[in-house]
Specification:
The chain is mostly helical. It is 50% helix and 11% strand. The relative contact order is 0.13.
Length: 182
């Protein structure tokens, strides 16, 4: 459920909850509402609803939904459009599969950046490689929401995505202003 001006969060939550309950009944799954920020591992094979999740909530919810079903009511702070494009998610407000409008250049860059996520893009080789790749992106592909959501779909964790988002902003600011990214 995308965060947009057309569907209030309460309405989106009702649609998502109804879908999750339908999936639970149809596939004999245990329904589960993921509380934002709560850890724990309830196991796998649930029909999961994540309400206004951050990227770690999405990651944990997807673990619980493995072999099950997953719905999210997106928060504006952690856009999932890139995740929806990678996974070909259905927008429950329209019934349409999310179209992947990412350029081939951006898709390739995401794959390359994901390769260097062995340490969450902390200082060193992973961060330096990510900086180089981010710096090579043409301006139309410098979309932090698409980048982070796509990498969330590939399994990157929230803290690592926050670091990468900060890194991307610094690199792109340096390019646009000539300022030092540190």
């Amino acid at each position: 459920m995308p965060s947009d001006d057309h569907t209030p969060h309460d309405d989106a939550a009702e649609l998502a909850a109804a879908w999750v309950l339908e999936q639970a009944r149809a596939h004999a799954l245990q329904p589960l509402l993921r509380d934002p920020g709560k850890g724990g591992n309830p196991g796998r094979g649930h029909a999961v609803l994540a309400y206004l999740p951050d990227y770690d909530d999405v990651h944990n919810s997807l673990q619980a939904a493995r072999y099950g079903a997953f719905a999210a009511v997106e928060s504006g702070a952690h856009p999932l459009i890139g995740w929806a494009m990678v996974t070909r998610a259905v927008n429950l407000t329209t019934g349409q599969i999310t179209v992947d409008s990412r350029s081939e250049t951006l898709k390739e860059a995401i794959e390359r950046i994901h390769f260097f996520d062995n340490n969450g893009w902390t200082r060193g080789f992973g961060a330096e490689s990510a900086k180089r790749i981010l710096g090579d992106l043409p301006p139309p592909d410098r979309d932090k929401d698409l980048l982070l959501g796509s990498l969330c779909a590939l399994g990157s964790r929230g803290r690592a995505l926050e670091r990468l988002g900060d890194l991307a902003q610094r690199v792109w600011k340096k390019i646009s202003t000539g300022a030092d990214p540190e």
